[in-house]
């Protein structure tokens, strides 16, 4: 086994080595962060996302290509709808914000749309913070920030995020706007898609709260980031925009708690063998060994959120891990971590009879045996109870 990495190496250099010297970093967006927060125990995803590894290319090189992600048609349709919503200086978007979230304010007859262009993500982040400060101090005006850049510290590494829009209200409060291309039919949308959008918006709210905290002055409190975001979607089967206010307090609390539990990326990187690299151009055997050097925590929910899910599922099944059956099943089985352990406990070959999980398994095995014996050829069917 090669020696572990030496401490003291700059984190950015370590992550570049893990990604590959000639491989550009893939930006970590809010959707990926929401998925990462939903599975905080997966060190594999944490280090791959932290290093900016393209997991889709990595999965293809491992022989387990992913079907996860949006189609080009969906991306094109979404971009066209977003452009329509933001046309004319965001007049329609601001009207929806006023209608759904802030009826007590003056209607947004005219709004400020500051220029947020700058060099690099760090420059755009600083320009966004300056624009938010100026908009907050300009009392009584509406301000629309189109694709601002926010930074959020994730496991010791900065992640740069780009929400669709942020609106500063006349009272100085901030609202996150999410624009999606799935429809709202009769005023409601697919609950699963709304939930995913809410988790994504919660990441933006957390990043905005960090910006607000840095803008705090002795003479004024931190600007308030509203806990209701605006979800804008096409109305019914048309291309006309409609909107709904979504309360993301629960998603914000859960996501913040999960992100805080993530193991620091530098701590994971320093445990890897020297020379570990996730460059998809490397030989398959070497790449597989690199990926397997980082433990993963697979669950069926990963299939809808991670490009490496098929690869991790195959390894989880081969190892007989009960996590491949789902997190709820894993929680019910307690200390039994493999399917072999579960079957041995059910047959009475292993396990502590005082363990509730073991007792439940043995009772289930008894009931199964009784049911099978009753169905055997020549077995007498149990007498039906008398009706009174």
Provide a descriptive summary of the structure in words:
The protein is of the alpha/beta class. The chain is built from 15 helices and eight strands. It has helices at residues 11-19, 30-38, 43-51, 55-61, 72-85, 87-101, 120-137, 191-214, 249-261, 265-269, 284-292, 309-318, 327-332, 339-346, 356-374; strands at 111-112, 142-146, 150-154, 157-161, 165-168, 174-179, 228-234, 241-247. The strands form two sheets. A six-stranded mixed sheet has the order 1-2-5-6-7-8, sandwiched between helices. Helix 7 links the parallel strand 1 (111-112) and strand 2.
What is the element layout, followed by pairings?
Blueprint: H1 11-19, H2 30-38, H3 43-51, H4 55-61, H5 72-85, H6 87-101, E1 111-112, H7 120-137, E2 142-146, E3 150-154, E4 157-161, E5 165-168, E6 174-179, H8 191-214, E7 228-234, E8 241-247, H9 249-261, H10 265-269, H11 284-292, H12 309-318, H13 327-332, H14 339-346, H15 356-374
Parallel strand pairs: 1-2, 6-7
Antiparallel strand pairs: 2-5, 3-4, 5-6, 7-8
Helix pairs in contact: 1-3, 2-8, 2-9, 8-9, 14-15
Approximately how much helix is present in the residues?
40-55%
Structural class: alpha/beta
What fraction strand? 5-15%
Write down the Rg. Answer: 26 Å
Average of pLDDT: 86
**Main beta-sheet strand count, sense and barrel state:** 6 strands, mixed
DSSP helix count? 15
Low-confidence runs (pLDDT<50, min 5 residues)?
5-9, 384-388
Q: Which of globular, elongated, flat, extended, rod-shaped describes the shape?
A: globular
Q: Write the H/E string, N to C.
A: HHHHHHEHEEEEEHEEHHHHHHH
The main sheet orders its strands as: 1-2-5-6-7-8
Please count the beta strands (DSSP E, at least 2 residues each).
8
